[in-house]
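Q: Structure tokens for this one, please.
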Amino acid sequence: DKGQTVMSYNASDIEQVIIVTAENGSQATYHFNYNVKYLTDADLKGLYIDGKELPDFASDKLEYTYTLPWRTRAVPSVQPVLNSETQTVVVTYNGVNEKTYIKVVASDGVTEKVYSVQFDVIKSKNTQLDYIVLSDVDFDFDPAKTDYTITLPYGINKAPQLFYKKQEEEQQVSLHLAPVTEPTTITVTAENGDTRTDRKSVV
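A: Here is the predicted structure, written as tokens:
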């Protein structure tokens, strides 16, 4: 009716009121109550590491391991892909060789899932030294060789001084200096825990 006027307003977040006024002033009021349906979906649609999709991702799989190159110091960026615009997500970063957590909360504010990615850095297995030098003694060092027999010049009755250089700073070296009648040993432990022992026998 051309003589009618209509006014609408929201009485609350879930209630809408429409008032229709006739030409003669009589009114009719309509109330509309809405039931809001909250989603309980806390699944992720995908997970990306530095822009690359995690190969084995599945929404129902919560724990992952991701291998980083040797000597990586920083955790890469993690980009979760939400399954719904109503979800919220928080990414908590920790260091390398630790877990990064991705917490997803559904729109109901209660249902949640926590995904995790363990970022493991590859460790070196190198147990070779860069060089070994003996004072006042000619000595040809081969990094691949572990056993040596060294003949001392006439008149020398004590083991010469020994110097070495690691190939990698992560290596640990244990030096056992022995008298000339016993082998001197150098044990090199790689970053991954592998060990190798060089033996120097003096005659």
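A few notes: The CA atoms of residues 133 and 169 lie 19 Å apart. The chain has a mean pLDDT of 89.
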